[in-house]
Design a protein that fits this description.
The longest helix has about 55 residues. By secondary structure, the chain is an all-alpha fold. The chain is about 80% helix and about 0% strand. The chain is elongated, with a radius of gyration of 37 Å. The chain folds into 2 domains: about 110 residues; about 50 residues.
Length: about 190
């Protein structure tokens, strides 16, 4: 039994002391926080606020082209859901940054890699969507246009018929009102002694 315990201890190796808990906020959170804030803030809010935020990120990347500012700009370009989004430019910017991985922190490099893959997939889907639209048989497009025109014509006809129906109801109510007036005069005229 003692021999088995000794073998188990030898196989497990020497026990190392437990790592000390971090004393402050994790380094990744400090690095990724501003980047993720930009990515979440851009697609939200009104277009003026989006444009202002995007322009400030772009200006920072152009005026002070640090790796961090350039990454922030690349991620802003990659973020979908607002007018400044540009997946082609984002792909180029992220590829340039990842070409020199030593300039990025590990967390930045991982985020840039994931975002580059996402942008590449989006570009593939956009190209496929365009190809499918372009390859749609002309007959299908013609049928769709014909159906759209017919639907518009029928909507116009329905509106015209509704208007005519409303006019006919108004005339009917007027005739009914006149008949009641005549009937009321006739009955009130016979009552008078």
């Amino acid at each position: 039994m003692a021999a088995l315990n000794a073998c188990g201890t030898l196989l497990a190796g020497p026990k190392s002391p437990a790592p000390a808990p971090p004393s402050g906020p994790p380094q990744d959170a400090v690095v990724l926080g501003p980047l993720l804030d930009i990515m979440s803030a851009l697609p939200q809010g009104d277009p003026a606020r989006q444009a202002e935020l995007f322009q400030s990120v772009k200006d920072a990347a152009e005026l002070t082209p640090t790796t961090s500012n350039r990454l922030k700009y690349a991620l802003a370009l990659a973020t979908p859901g607002y007018s400044g989004s540009d997946p082609v430019a984002a792909q180029r910017q992220l590829s340039e940054l990842l070409a020199r991985p030593e300039t990025l922190l590990l967390a930045e490099r991982l985020l840039a890699t994931v975002e580059l893959k996402e942008v590449e997939q989006r570009l593939i889907l956009q190209a496929e969507n365009k190809r499918l639209r372009d390859e749609a048989p002309p007959d299908d497009r013609d049928k769709l246009q014909t159906t759209s025109r017919r639907l518009a014509a029928e909507s116009d006809e329905n509106a015209r018929l509704r208007k005519a129906l409303d006019e006919a109801r108004a005339k009917l109510e007027a005739v009914t009102h006149i008949e009641r007036s005549i009937t009321d005069r006739g009955t009130s005229g016979t009552r008078t002694p």
